[in-house]
Amino acid sequence: MLKKTGKIAIVGQPNAGKSTLFNVLSDVKTNTSNFAGTSVDLTSCMVNYFGNTLEFIDLPGTYSLNPGDNAEKVTIDYLESNEVGLIVNVIDSSLLARSLELTMELAEYGRPMIIALNMFEEARKKGIEIYPNRLEEEIGVPVIPVSAIHGKGIKRLIDKCFELAAGEKVYPKKQKFTHHFEIRVNELEREISPFDGQFKGSNRYYAVKSLENPSLVPNPIMQRLNGKLEEIEKENFELHKTGLVEMVSYERHHAAMALAEKISKLSKPQGSSITEEADKWLLHPYFGFVGLLLFFSLIFTTIFFIGDFLTGLMDPGVQFVAGLYEPLRSSSPYLFAVVDGAYQGLAGALGIVLPYFLPLIFLTAFFEDTGYLARLAFLVDVFMDKIGLHGKSVAAFILGIGCSVPAIYATRILESKRDRLLTAILIPFVPCSARIAVIFALTAALAGPLWAVAVFAFVLLVIAVNGRLISKFLKKPTGLVLEIPELRRPDLRITFRKTKFKTWDFLKDAVPFLIIGSIVLAYLELLNVNEYLNIFFTPLLNYVMGLPEELGSTLVFGFFRKELILVMANQALGVESIASLPLTSEQVIIFVVFVTLYFPCFTTFVVIWKEFGGRTAVASAVLSILVAAGSALIFRLIFEVKNLII
Amino acid sequence: MIKLTEIPSQKRFRILELQLEPDSRRRLNTMGVHTNDFFVRENESSWGPVLIKNIGSNTSKIALGRNLADKIIVESDMI
């Protein structure tokens, strides 16, 4: 037996359940949801099984091996540039015929393969009875029915993976096209035969790709085939009056339909689907928007009231502990700075940020799994169109409510570079969980919940205006093409598990930052360094926004993590709790508007740089600071005019 | 022959032509939208995307932006 075998790539169409399967296989929790494009990068895990080790790779979902967006390109690039020992093709059984089109392409690609028939029960409910043994005969590789979400069939799948990875390779049978077209593909295969084994894919794969997507075929092969391709193209047009792209697609589509018919039996669906009924309302041109409004109201009120309740619950305890080390302030100021800084950082993370963060990530995880986000994208497409984007960008914006970093990565699911760029420039304006915590904590304590709603409405306006203005300088958008997956009842165990892992990620990443930042600020104050920072920010804070200059140093920390602002504001203004901040409610609103819009955070800046280059990153940062300052000034002027009138 | 946007709700139709760039055509094909296939339009409104579902191959619903749907030529199914 082998001690270490090759890499096993999990490949399937979006929403087929690859990431859910991967989560079951590993202890690494990847991001899953009922929305195409949740996994935009690859994640790997090592599975140890009776002394053998296998490396599983969760690749982004792809509808075909013709990449339509950057996320899909990750999958094709991975297969082309890595030694993949085995492909696990995850199929959504309830979408059998369409899923088999990718299976056929993978078979053409010619790597050892195994098929995991996921969502077997859902297919049955839809009246599709699949016979795995028939598929095994037709495609020539093992077929294992699984239910990734319930962990059924997983042991059998792992057993088979080990058996295949360690033993003799099992290659899938290539499916035949219609007679005339098959002859042409065979001719191309023969032309390619001198290159046998030089590239990762099979000769047949490159023969078919040379017809439908020559950009995926290595140059030496294309040079050899050029004359032949022109001949086939001409012949095809004379016979069918279509291009080669359509021809290959038609052939594959019909071969997949024929295969689906051979391996399954259709019967009446079990009862009328409740989800179909629900969709009539959720996607209705009028009632859909009522649902959307209710959705956002539910999210915001839940976060606000739970967050406010938890903060209030913890506040007396936080104040009490702070009083215990107060004597150190006079007896040992340097020690006090360390203790107080560390404690304020910890108390800020657990007592101020976490109460708002928890309900937000729980609700986001819950709704991600229902499939509602795709419906949301469908509904808002009409508005997104007005700002030069389309509904699919909403996926990235929604992720941005959690954190801007995965949101920037999620732009990879957008097909055109233009849409990716515009979405990435606008994402930093979407308040992430840290900024939402700042908005809610400050407005809840000092201005009232309606102001939180007003700030969010203003942010939407900022995104709309910026999108519209920037899109004037870009070419026309491509338009929405979005799969609306079936509505699913989320498994609360998975929602809680996702919440737990995201909370742990937050605590792991944010708390050390908050504690260290808080100690550093305490020392800066002790050594009067923060005064210089405050002087630097005085023109902006004092003259533009009418805020105390002491808040200047907090903005520096906010460049790194926005949660720091809450803790730092308390420290900078010398108070123990947010409610005691010496700011008027109007000043709080101005500060919140600026903090929400200026420079997302350092990590987001780096990720934009990585994905779009330095110029875009710097332009986005400068734009956000200008927009934030301008917006804060607008609010200040509105308040001043109001005060003059009243 | 009419544009997809002109098909009424719950009406069956056949796609005749995808008057789109090759990349967009390929994209639609891979998501189960092919010429000559029969679909049903699931929604009707004078704004927003068009929602269609393939009758033959039991795929999910596909939402198509209005500008894109305007470039898809279909014929109403008489059956």
How would you explain this protein's 3D organization?
The complex is a heterodimer of chains A (646) and B (79). Helix content of chain A is 65%, strand content 8%. By secondary structure, chain A is α/β, with parallel strands linked by helices. Chain A has a six-stranded mixed β-sheet with strand order 2-3-1-4-5-7, with helices on both faces. In chain A, α16 runs antiparallel to α17 (404-410). By secondary structure, chain B is α+β, with helices and mostly antiparallel strands. Chain B has helices at residues 22-30, 66-69; strands spanning 2-3, 12-18, 38-41, 50-54, 61-64, 72-76. Chain B has a six-stranded antiparallel β-sheet. In chain B, β3 (38-41) and β4 (50-54) form a beta hairpin. The two termini of chain B are 16 Å apart. Classes of the chains: A alpha/beta (646), B alpha+beta (79). The A-B interface holds A 15, 63-64, 66, 68, 94-98, 101, 126, 128, 212-213, 242-243, 245-246, 249-250, 253, 257, 260, 279, 283-285, 374, 377-379, 381-382, 385, 390-391, 415, 477-486 and B 18, 22-32, 34-37, 42-45, 47-49, 51, 56-68. β9 (481-484) of chain A pairs antiparallel with β5 of chain B.
Strand/helix succession of chain B:
EEHEEEHE
Give the helix level of chain A as a range of percent. 55-70%
The share of residues in helices of chain B is 10-25%
Reported for the largest beta sheet of chain B, the result is: 6 strands, antiparallel
Strands of the widest sheet of chain A, in order across it, are 2-3-1-4-5-7
| Cα-atom radius of gyration of chain B | 11 Å
Short account of what is shown:
The complex is a heterodimer of chains A (about 650) and B (about 80). With about 650 residues, chain A is an alpha/beta fold. Chain A has helices at about 20-25, 70-80, 95-110, 120-125, 130-140, 155-165, 180-190, 205-210, 220-240, 245-265, 275-280, 285-325, 330, 335-370, 370-385, 395-400, 405-410, 415-425, 435-445, 450-470, 490-525, 530-545, 550-560, 565-570, 585-595, 600-610, 615-645, and strands spanning about 5-10, 45-50, 50-60, 85-90, 115-120, 130, 145, 265, 480-485.
